[in-house]
Amino acid sequence: MNPVFNQNININFPNDILLTIKREDLIHPFVSGNKFRKLKYNLLQAKAENKTTLLTFGGAFSNHIAAVAYAGKEQGFKTIGIIRGDELLDKIEENPTLKFAQENGMQFEFVSREEYRLKSETSYIEKLKEKFGDFYLVPEGGTNELAVKGCEEILTDEDSVFNYVCCAVGTGGTISGLINSSLQNQKILGFPALKGDFLTDEIRIFAKKDNWNLISDYHFGGYGKINLELIEFINAFFEENKVPLDPIYTGKMVFGVIDLISKNYFPAHSKILLIHTGGLQGIDGMNIKLKQKKLPILKTND
C-alpha cells in the first residue's frame, strides 16, 4: 500500500474557495482507489472462511474485474469473473481490461445481458456453485458491508478541515463509507455515474447519517457515456494539475464540482475535498473507442 496524500488544485476560484483532491488512485499500482478499500476486508473474510476461490461480476472495462484478478493472484486466490456480454468471448485480446485480468489468472464466464441481471438471485448463485464449486462471492462493484468498512478508512483526521467531501458514485459503497466516517458538520456529495434514482435506496442500506446528497446532473448521458466537452476538460485538468482522471467516474465528478463552483453552489470560504477513486486502468479501453469515433484520446502522462 502506497501513501495517499491530499493535493491542492491550483485554480483561483471566486469567494476564497479551496479545492483539494485525495489521491486514492496512488494507493496501489493495480488495485487502485476504492477497489483497494473495498477488497481489503473481503479478502480477509474469504481467508477466514478458508475459501480458495473468489467469484465476482463485471462489464467489459470493469475496474472491479481488473482489481479482483490482481488482488486475488497477489493473495493466492483463484478468481472467476462473470462478464456481462457474451459477444466479448472472442475479443479478450483487444480488450485491455479483460486481457489484464486473464493474464493475472482470472477465469471468465461470458453471459448474456439477460442472464447477467440474475446476478443477485440466490438460485443463480447456487447454479454457479454447481458449475464452479465453492467460492467467496464478491458482489458487482464490490459493495457490501465489508467494502463499506474499508471505505470508512478513506477519510483521516487531517480531513476534518473540509466542509464538503465529494466522490463519484457507482454502486454506493464508497460514499456510504465516507458518510459513516464523516463529521456531522461535513456534507458528503455524491455524483452518480449512472442514470436513475435507485442509488438513494442502495446508499441508505449502509449509510448511518443523513449529511449527504446526490447530484445527478453530471452523468453525461449515462454509465460509460463521454463527449468532447468531458474529454477536453479531463485533458486540460491533467495539463494544469498533473492529475489524471478517469472518464467514467472521477472525471465526471470533478467536472461537476468545478461547474457547481462557477454557479455559486458552495458558500464562500468552502474547503472542498475531492476523492479520486482510481479507475485509470479503464482509460486504455476508452481510448480505443474514442479513436474509432475520431475523437481526441485521454491523456494520462506527459
From TrEMBL:
Kindly name one Pfam family recorded for this protein.
PALP
* InterPro entries membership: ACCD_DCysDesulf, TrpB-like_PALP, TrpB-like_PALP_sf
Location of the Tryptophan synthase beta chain-like PALP domain: 19-278
Cofactor(s) this protein requires:
pyridoxal 5'-phosphate
UniProt keywords, alphabetically: Pyridoxal phosphate
- The highest taxon in the source lineage is Bacteria
The family assignment reads: Belongs to the ACC deaminase/D-cysteine desulfhydrase family.
Kindly provide the name given to this protein in its UniProt entry. Pyridoxal-phosphate dependent enzyme
